[in-house]
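Next up, a chain.

===
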Amino acid sequence: MTTADPNTRSGIRRVEPNGAAARIFMSFLATAGLFYVNIMPAIVDGLIEGLGFSNGEAGFVGSANVYGAAAGALIIVFIVGRIRWRPVAYALLAVLIAMDLLSILVQQPALMIGTRFVHGVVGGALVGIGFAVIARATSPDRTFGVLLVIQFGLGGLGNLYLPRLVPIFGTDVLFLSLIAFSLVTAAMVPFLDEYEVTEAQGLQSAKGVAGAALIPMALTLLATFLFQAANMGLFAFIIGLGKAAGLTVDFITWTLALSGWIGIVGAGLVIVLHTRYGRTMPLVVAMILTIAGFWVLNYSEVASIYLLANCAMGITWAFVIPYLLGLAAEFDRTGRMAALGGFASKMGLASGPLVGGLLIGGNGNYTLLIIAGIVTMSASLGACIVPAWRQDHVPSVSD
């Protein structure tokens, strides 16, 4: 009598659950619903240049997309432990593709805002599922590091080429690129393992969450929200900031591509270092460097400063967020806290462009935007210290 291979389901050979291929596939799953964030400058600038949207309208579209994602992520928090994640992921990917196709037909700001909000709800739910699956595997912060490698690498390509393609092919190219990413992700999903939550894991996670101090958990979510808001508030308008400083579009797009690719170094450091030096010191150092990068953007008229500031912020962004998301994931093994961390992240990503567009206004007040980013990043730094220190000294529920 032969025994079926446990890694084979329905005739499909699954990849090793905690191997490199699995981390890559999980990263695509957790990125597909929110990939537009990584090409947000291209989307915002494309809506302005291609459809004639104002700064405020384009920023509102971006924010509506991510606010929808936050709503979807929040919904999934309450059901992620009780659903079969794979068929739900297929369904959500199909709806994402349909909404991106619909977006190609929309040209009015109000209708675009509504369309992208619905797209965001679906995408946020998909990302929440992806985060939960990552939390059920080993070393979630390492997988989040892989996720950032993929996001920054492909995001760099998008920010390099899409702004150049919009004048030729229109805004259709923006949404077609998102559709392509969803199709690639759908092709990867069948090869992932089941990542089911056992009864023992569920009880252990409930005990861990109940026994953990609520303050560190809340501070983790707050730090994540503020960090993402500060970064995206600047990133969404970084093309406009460069143009206002007198830089050429070619130089700006190459800078964004380079900063995305160099940002891979930050994510790679997370994969290599893991928790070798704890979480507290790496987070503190990286956030201080981010604040310094924000400040020197005041001198963006010097091309080399604009380039170096963007590259430095790319590295620290890709370095910090895996630690923050991994920190949330360590609170339980069902993936609920990871999904909740994803909700906080998306709320920050959504709030940044919305507030940023209001601060810039019609006068192009990028100095005020930079100051607001510094203040917000400093608050995130203060919020992350207690939960990071606690996790460095208290065993997690996954230990």
In short: Strands lie at 8-9, 12-13. The first helix runs from residue 20 to 32. The two ends are 37 Å apart (CA to CA).
